[in-house]
Amino acid sequence: MSTAHYSVIIASKGRTIAAVDDFSVVRNEISFLFGESGIGKSMLCKAIYGLLDPEELHITVNNMPYRAYLNSPETRGVKQSSFFVFQEPSSHLYPLTRITGQLREGSIAGSAGEEEILSRLWKTADSAKLKGILDVYPKPYRPSGGEKQRILLAMAFKKIALLATAETILPTFFVFDEPTGSLDNNYRNLFLGFLFEEYRKKPFTAMIITHDYSIISEVYEHHNSLIDKIHYKELTRIEEGRVRLHDFSPDDYLSWLRQTKTHRPMSAAPAGEVVRVAPEFRIFGHDHRICRDAARTQTVDLVIRRGEMVYVKAPSGVGKTTLAKIIMGLYRPDTFSMTLCGRAVTEATQRSFFEQEIWGRRAGMVFQHADEALDLEATVAETFEGLPLGHKLTHEELDRSLAELFEGGVTEAFLAKKAKFLSGGQKQRLNLLRTIILHPDLIILDEPLNGLDFESVRKIIAILEEKRKSGSALLMISHNEEIFDALVDEEHCYYLS
Amino acid sequence: MMKFIRSKDTRWLSIWVLSTLAVWIWDIVFLNKPALHKVFNGFFNTFIIAILVVVFTLILGWMVTVLLHALQSRTNRAPYLAVTFLMNLIRSIPQIVGILFAYVGITLLVAGSVITSKALVFIIMAISMSLFIFLELVDLMRDRIDHFTKLDFYSAMRVCGIPERRVVNFDILWKNSRLHIQNKLIAVLGYAVFLQCSVDFIISVGLSTEVNEVTLPTTLGSLLAKIDSKQDILAIGYTLTHPGYTGHLFFEHLQGMTVAFLIVFSLVSIYHIANGYAERHRL
């Protein structure tokens, strides 16, 4: 096993954006790279791969000026035989060329087996269906995010197929940046299975950047034979801009998961209902049903009592966030009925009812994307101003609350820092804390673990458990089924269709 | 210092200030005292009124924006429609025509001794101009509010119980639109100088000079309409056919030259400052 070591510094206008002393990449093996969002995972991988612009940023790799690094035969060689799958597939696809054309250009033009790759990734042998998806010009809304992601993965697999025909093992560095972010678990597992299958044929170096810790369980359950060839790394912050890459122990995650499952609360004792939503509702011309079973045959009221944590499951785009926004009075449904904190609410209920009686007082909601949900121009301290706490939050109270989620203590400089200068994970923690600090009867959390590292996931789950025990009703929406299945028993799971 | 000069807006601000200073030094040396006094008064009055226009535009724009936002979400649409109608009525009047009529009103008030203080004349002139300019700021601020209310940003804060007035005034307008507003106000300074000079020029040429001299403060626009300034401007044209006369412009036609330069160069500078500011802050 040989390892390439990189020391990377990326700076702009005198400010260090990301710096790491030892970024190690195990050659011809597969590494999963974890770490909270915004910490520099993508940027460091792009720097090593050779994708950053030496004109815009001041970069050194192994003390070598970036231009020299880019021109070195080793970097050029690796780049020629590798592929970088971007996190945001839209930015990779050219809108004026049909997708089929883009799949057959550049260094992947001569790669064979395209049809097989596509049918594997789409899990279909129907070439007419594939043609319908691929023979289009990419636009923001078509194909869908998940399909665009699979198109990029198909490009990477075409490059891998090219390597398989080479006589020797070429130096490679395949980077998959959040390759499963828009895929549901079925397609995610399909991708992983395909990748490992190709790896078995002929090894290559791959770095998979992800926040999805449940990948570990998938590897341990279904790809056990490759465990020796798979590494788990985590990037953590040492100080502003400076990070450290270290091994992440999969056992930490797996044992925490087991422990969470073992200690999850028993069926709740009868307690006051906070919310009861009628099982059928209609919005934007679509009918939705809330069901008890995964097969979606038996409709039931969605009931959350004090001290309960309820988990709503549905594939992407079915309407989980829409349901949450209806409960919070942000969307006006066509037909809807619920009881919220003892008050009957229907589609006719005015927004003023929610403004005066619900928001921040009886119910709060944590939105999915912290980048959109926070005022990024406001400072950390200002984020907590204006909340209906009944009193002005004292410095000590704010410090205490922040210290629960932010390691290293809360300094004046941190409180005065604008939210836009925080990492993605820090923003998400701030986003969560703004609602949690309110102590409402009902807290709705939409993808609360987005962009968090494992340590933060553990802290957030612990805080939510505390909230639940203190009598709050929690409604969870998340695609991270493994963690929430461990946390919430089947009795408190609902399925939306 | 290099950073200051590298930005287009600060570079043009420096050019404007330094050039204006150079002109003043030249005038102090070569322009006769009564003319110098008139030009200085004209410049001072023009910019005091323009700055007041900026202040009133900001106050009026902010108040009307917040009022419209509050009325928009009410079940009773009548007050919202009434304010919108009133705004559209103002919008339908060409700025220069509106300000001309406002000036006529001010003249009547001064002539009837209703207004006697010079400061009050300045303030009323500035308010009159703001009334026909502030809608541009309202449009910008409402666009910003509309943009943010469509994002999760607005809903996420509201469901936390943060009051609407704080989200709109502090988070949207102050924290996230301040630079846009500042940029618009720089442009408003330019409009104010331009409209003021245009209207004063029209009034001074078209109405009785006697009325104007008695009632309204001297501005760069009214100075430009004076016969001696006009002769100076004609002299500039004369140099096109008689280039040898150019040197005389800087010694014998200084009043008109200075006034024309201060108006044109100030407008060009303000235009570049506003553009540079937008570029620097990527607005």
CATH fold category name of the largest domain in chain A = Rossmann fold
Profile the largest sheet of chain A: 10 strands, mixed
Largest inter-chain contact set: A-B, 30 and 21 residues
- Oligomer designation: heterodimer
What does the model show?
The complex is a heterodimer of chains A (497) and B (283). Chain A is of the alpha/beta class. Chain A contains 20 helices and 21 strands. In chain A, strands 5-4-1-2-10-9-3-8-7-6 form a 10-stranded mixed sheet. In chain A, strands 12-13-21-15-20-19-18 form a 7-stranded mixed sheet, with helices on both faces. A 4-stranded antiparallel sheet of chain A has the order 14-11-16-17, with no helix packed on it. Helix content of chain B is 87%, strand content 0%. Chain B has helices spanning 2-6, 8-30, 33-72, 78-92, 95-111, 118-150, 152-158, 164-206, 209-215, 220-225, 227-241, 246-252, 254-280. The mean pLDDT of chain B is 89. Chains A and B meet through strand 18 and helix 18 of A and helix 7 and helix 8 of B.
Write the layout of secondary structure elements.
The complex is a heterodimer of chains A (497) and B (283).
Chain A: E1 3-12, E2 15-26, E3 30-34, H1 41-49, E4 58-61, E5 64-65, H2 66-71, H3 73-80, E6 84-85, H4 89-92, H5 99-102, H6 114-122, H7 127-134, H8 145-165, E7 174-177, H9 185-201, E8 206-209, H10 214-222, E9 230-239, E10 242-247, H11 250-262, E11 273-277, E12 280-283, E13 286-291, E14 302-305, E15 309-313, H12 320-327, E16 337-340, E17 343-346, H13 351-358, E18 363-366, H14 370-373, H15 380-383, H16 395-405, H17 412-415, H18 424-436, E19 442-446, H19 454-469, E20 473-477, H20 481-487, E21 493-496
Parallel strand pairs in A: 2-10, 3-8, 3-9, 6-7, 7-8, 15-20, 15-21, 18-19, 19-20
Antiparallel strand pairs in A: 1-2, 1-4, 4-5, 9-10, 11-14, 11-16, 12-13, 13-21, 16-17
Chain B: H1 2-6, H2 8-30, H3 33-72, H4 78-92, H5 95-111, H6 118-150, H7 152-158, H8 164-206, H9 209-215, H10 220-225, H11 227-241, H12 246-252, H13 254-280
